[in-house]
């Protein structure tokens, strides 16, 4: 681990999961750490390890630091950071801090949708091939916590969000995976071009290694055509991996059959293709890949069956926090559903999903701050009804559904207006479904 050298004082802005991982690593290095987070107003209320805590971004105090570490949710364009930036104080993210100390081979995965699934698929394929793997980053364990308590790992697989890419220093993964680019986080980026540039930062320092890219996605394809490193394309008819209904065909003629692959929808065949190419490039065996295809069950809060109420099946897709994710889920179901949508708006154009939603949604139950915007975008194409809480939404959705028309929570929005995070939203949904089922349904 790199010594602290002459550094002595660091600020960590945002004291959530990744922020506190950064705090712990900095303290291990001998830094004095000031935490800044609006949730905490005193050291006694804050998590352990911080030497002091501010309940706001204190621009004057930031000027007294040697290093500023941002949690992913903190916008690096905040004006309070500008004086420190002008002074030349490094401003990096938690993942960048961890990467300073990472010496193991690395696979990095980004994209608007599918990052978590692909990260876990790659790790599963490598483990099934006898490799010792850490998987984390934006998913699960922050990188700084892995650096503090390294597992017996010989390689790492990192899910990397656009926010984390924005605050990297230099990053040269051995394999870099870009899955797709669609509307998301437009509450933080001025336009789609800026968001796409953020995703392209994954490759900016790579002088070697491989890129795994989705040929079907126009924006990804454009980025790939600018790269000087070798590219492994998937979802390409020739010169790459071809996706068929029941098999994946590699350029070298290898076939991987999909009759035992349990994740529904074409988008999951795309996810599997990306994972296969990345894992194979890092030494996964064909048998390890085939074992994973047969046994991988998917992630929590991704189109997960969570019980029935009076014969109505209910599915938790709380992780669908943008427009494209909802469209993928609906297409995978390939039948009418009663859809629960809404939450905190992220700046996307809901009208872009109107055709898909009208094709697959019998009715929409709307919750949260974005309810009016969603209803206005759909106009009169789809029946919409408001609910003041998730509990009310579940009851209304079950009433509107039937045994042939399931209920799907797939919000297209972030959760922070009503919930701690998407996991909290999904767990509350599951608990409400279980309670309704136990009580015998809607009276």
Question: What is the gist of this entry?
Answer:
Helix content is 34%, strand content 19%. It has 443 residues and is of the alpha/beta class.
Rough outline: globular
* CATH class value of the largest domain: Alpha Beta
The share of residues in helices is: 25-40%
Low-pLDDT parts are: 1-5
What's the number of structural domains? 3
Counting copies of identical and different chains, the oligomeric state is single chain
Strand content: 15-25%
Average of pLDDT: 93
Model description:
The protein is α/β, with parallel strands linked by helices. The chain has three domains: 9-93, 3-Layer(aba) Sandwich (Rossmann fold); 102-295, Mur-like, catalytic domain (UDP-N-acetylmuramoyl-L-alanine:D-glutamate ligase, 3-Layer(aba) Sandwich); 304-438, Mur ligase, C-terminal domain (Protein-Tyrosine Phosphatase, Chain A). The chain has helices at 17-28, 59-62, 82-87, 94-99, 115-128, 143-148, 162-166, 192-200, 218-224, 266-281, 286-295, 323-333, 354-360, 371-378, 390-400, 422-439; strands at residues 9-13, 32-36, 52-54, 67-70, 91-93, 106-110, 133-137, 155-159, 175-178, 210-214, 231-234, 242-243, 247-249, 255-257, 304-309, 312-316, 337-342, 361-367, 384-386, 407-409. The chain has a six-stranded parallel β-sheet, with helices on both faces. Helix 5 (115-128) crosses helix 10, helix 5 (115-128) packs across helix 11 and helix 15 (390-400) packs across helix 16 (422-439). The longest helix has 18 residues, at 422-439. Residues 1-5 have low confidence and may be disordered.
């Amino acid at each position: 681990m790199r010594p602290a050298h002459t550094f002595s004082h660091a600020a960590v802005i945002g004291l959530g999961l990744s922020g506190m991982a950064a705090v712990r690593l900095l303290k291990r290095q001998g830094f004095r750490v000031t935490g800044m987070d609006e949730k905490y107003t005193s050291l006694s209320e804050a998590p352990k390890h911080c030497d002091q805590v501010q309940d706001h971004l204190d621009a004057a105090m930031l000027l007294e630091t040697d290093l500023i570490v941002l949690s992913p949710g903190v916008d690096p364009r905040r004006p309070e950071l500008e004086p420190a930036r002008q002074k030349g104080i490094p401003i990096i993210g938690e993942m960048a801090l961890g990467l300073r100390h990472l010496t193991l081979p690395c696979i990095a995965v980004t994209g608007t949708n599918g990052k978590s699934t692909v990260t876990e698929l790659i790790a599963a394929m490598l483990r099934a091939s006898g490799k010792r793997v850490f998987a984390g980053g934006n998913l699960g364990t922050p990188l700084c916590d892995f650096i503090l308590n390294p597992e017996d790992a010989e390689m790492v697989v990192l899910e990397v969000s656009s926010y984390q890419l924005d605050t990297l220093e230099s990053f040269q993964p051995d394999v870099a995976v870009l899955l797709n680019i669609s509307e998301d986080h437009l509450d933080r980026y001025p336009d789609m071009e800026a968001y796409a540039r953020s995703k392209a930062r994954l490759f900016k320092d790579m002088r070697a290694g491989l890129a795994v890219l989705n040929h079907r996605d126009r924006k990804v394809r454009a980025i790939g055509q600018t790269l000087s490193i070798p590219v492994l394309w998937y979802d390409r008819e020739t010169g790459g991996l071809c996706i068929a209904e029941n098999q994946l065909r590699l350029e070298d003629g290898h076939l991987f059959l999909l009759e035992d692959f349990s994740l529904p929808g074409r988008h999951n065949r795309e996810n599997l293709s990306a994972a296969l190419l990345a894992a194979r490039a890092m030494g996964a065996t064909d048998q390890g890949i085939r074992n994973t295809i047969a046994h991988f069950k998917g992630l929590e809060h991704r189109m997960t069956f969570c019980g029935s109420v009076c014969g109505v099946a209910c599915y938790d897709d709380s992780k669908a926090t943008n427009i494209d994710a909802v469209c993928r889920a609906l297409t995978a179901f390939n039948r009418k559903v009663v859809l629960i949508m809404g939450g905190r708006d992220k700046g996307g154009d809901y009208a872009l999903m109107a055709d898909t939603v009208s094709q697959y949604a019998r009715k929409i139950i709307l919750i949260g701050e974005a309810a009016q915007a969603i209803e206005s975008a759909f106009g009169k194409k789809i029946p919409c009804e408001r609910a003041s809480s998730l509990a009310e939404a579940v009851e209304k959705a079950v009433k509107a559904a039937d045994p042939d028309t399931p209920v799907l929570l797939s919000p297209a929005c972030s959760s922070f207006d009503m919930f701690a995070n998407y996991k909290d939203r999904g767990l509350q949904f599951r608990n409400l479904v279980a309670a309704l089922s136990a009580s015998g349904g809607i009276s």
